[in-house]
Amino acid sequence: MTQEQIQIIKDCIPILQKNGEELTKEFYKIMFNDYPEVKSMFNMEKQISGEQPKTLAMAILIAAKNIDDLEKMRSFVDKVAITHVKLGVKEEHYPIVGTCLLKAIKSLLNPDEATLKAWEVAYNKIAKFYIDIEKTL
User: Fold this and answer.
1) What is the 3-state composition of the chain as percent helix, strand, coil, each rounded to the nearest 5?
2) Which of 20, 108, 111, 124 could pair covalently with 57 via S-S, beta carbons 3.0-4.6 A apart?
3) Are the CB atoms for 45 and 95 separated by under 8 Å?
4) Residue 70 DSSP class
5) Which of 25, 114, 56 is nearest to 64 (CA)?
6) Alpha carbons within 13 A on the beta-carbon side of 124
7) How many domains in the chain?
């Protein structure tokens, strides 16, 4: 990531603090509509209660805050990675998440091209971090 892209992501932190759950609810709506085959990997009770969107919103916020040094969020990612492995999340699922997250960002935040590109690059960096950890489990 470039320093400019890192700064763009960090500049989004206040938006994520305020509207993170709205973003993740839109994300799940898009993903379950566009990729219904992944729905069985999710606990629908946690969707209904809002627990899962809240958890994902927190994960995105933590990642944005630490985008310049993802190792700072290692303990959080370790816990999520264990859950992912138990649920059968595979490397090929990450592009689905990335596509849907970018659609949600575009839909709700109407970002300029530089911001959308920064999020695309950031997501790929974060996904690789998760995948690399999950491969060790």
Assistant:
1) 85, 0, 15
2) 20
3) no
4) G
5) 56
6) 7
7) 1
Q: How many other C-beta atoms are found inside a 10 Å radius of the C-beta of residue 130?
A: 20
Model pTM score: 0.93
Asked whether the beta carbons of 123 and 94 are under 8 A apart, the reply is no
Among 38, 126, 130, 124, which residue's Cα sits nearest to residue 83?
130
Closest CA to 87 of 126, 125, 43: 43
**DSSP state letter for 90:** -
Contact 23, 104 (CB under 8 A): yes
Q: Output DSSP code: residue 117.
A: H
Which residues are annotated as catalytic? 94, 134
Quick one: which H or E segment has residue 99? helix 94-109
pLDDT tens digits along 12-46: 999 999 999 999 999 999 999 999 999 999 999 99
The domain containing residue 58 runs over which residues? 3-135
Residue 44 belongs to domain with CATH number: 1.10.490.10
Quick one: pLDDT at residue 55?
A: 95
For residue 72, give the amino acid letter: K
Distance (Å, whole) CA 53 – CA 111? 21
